[in-house]
Design brief:
alpha+beta, six-stranded antiparallel barrel, five-stranded mixed sheet, 16 strands, about 30% strand
């Protein structure tokens, strides 16, 4: 098993007697299902349905003061805390940015020998393993406790990319992407059965009408890696943009209809003059319609 402390992640605490209902009315995931030892993946959206910040959320046990702990991109934690405070109004809720004292250890490729109090399985995918919220100075001690080899954060980045989990700022831009475009619907980040939340109407419409034409996909590289943001071309027509890469694995944000048409026409995909290949091309095609015998 491997573990890495992630310096790009921070932690926000949302406490108070109204905290659960408060969060549940704002974010894409069902916070009523969150409890100590388990977590959910979700996002706060603009009213137009675009991602302000995506995050994992768990509940702290009473021995750690209770409340909800949000594992979010560290550059966004203060802005997200401020935004949550803006929505607070008269709710009995407190919002604190704990990123200077609490961070995130990711663990993967195995089961922890023991589960610390603030540990939970990554809800996006079994392959992504576990998250453990700890101060950075305890990373070696906790890695030893769970039976993991402590490695650097680049090793986790490589694993994240290979597992197909997009990262905001590299694979999509905050404020400019809908949840479907970052595969939040496929990574258990949107609950379509819960009540209203900010941006819910737009997301539900995309789901029910099947209008998501842009998706994050896994790609395979022949050799060198194009820079994130490089345009992907089919022939001479733009069909997407490059995201993060590691070795021969990468992620890209593409227009699925245009790429499907290009592949059917025998056109190759390139970025910065370098060839790229879809890791799972069949996933771009909609399932065949069922016919009644």
């Amino acid at each position: 098993m491997k573990a890495a402390f992630l310096p790009d992640r921070g932690v926000i605490k949302v406490g108070g007697e109204d905290a659960r209902d408060f969060l549940n009315g704002l974010v894409t995931t069902d916070v009523t299902l969150v409890g100590p030892g388990n977590g959910r993946f979700g996002a706060l959206l603009t009213p137009q349905g675009k991602i302000i910040a995506d995050f994992l959320v768990t509940e702290a046990p009473a021995g750690h003061g209770g409340g909800f702990l949000i594992d979010a991109p560290r550059p966004l934690t203060q802005g997200l805390a401020d935004k949550l405070g803006f929505y607070k109004l008269r709710a009995k809720v407190t919002v604190e940015n704990l990123s200077d004292s609490l961070g995130v250890l990711a663990a993967w490729d195995g089961e922890p020998a023991m589960k610390p109090d603030l540990a939970f399985a990554d809800p996006r995918s079994d392959a992504l393993g576990w998250r453990i919220l700890i101060p950075e100075e305890l990373k070696q001690k906790v890695a030893d406790l769970i039976g993991a080899d402590l490695v650097d954060s680049e090793a986790y980045e490589a694993h994240r990319i290979k597992s197909g989990a997009p990262r905001g700022g590299l694979d999509f831009m905050y404020g400019d992407a809908f949840p479907h475009e970052t595969n939040m619907d496929r990574l258990h980040g949107v609950d379509f059965e819960k009540g209203c939340y900010v941006g819910q109407e737009v997301v539900s419409r995309m789901q029910h009408r099947g209008t998501a034409r842009t998706r994050t996909v896994k790609i395979i590289l022949d050799d060198f890696s194009p820079e994130p943001g490089t345009a992907i071309l089919a022939g001479d027509k733009p069909v997407g943009t490059m995201g993060s890469t590691s070795g021969k694995n990468g992620l890209a944000l593409i227009r699925t209809d245009r790429v499907t048409d290009a592949l059917d026409a025998g056109l190759r995909l390139t970025a910065g003059g370098l060839a790229i290949h879809l890791a799972e091309p069949d996933e771009l095609r909609p399932p065949p319609k069922q016919t009644v015998a």
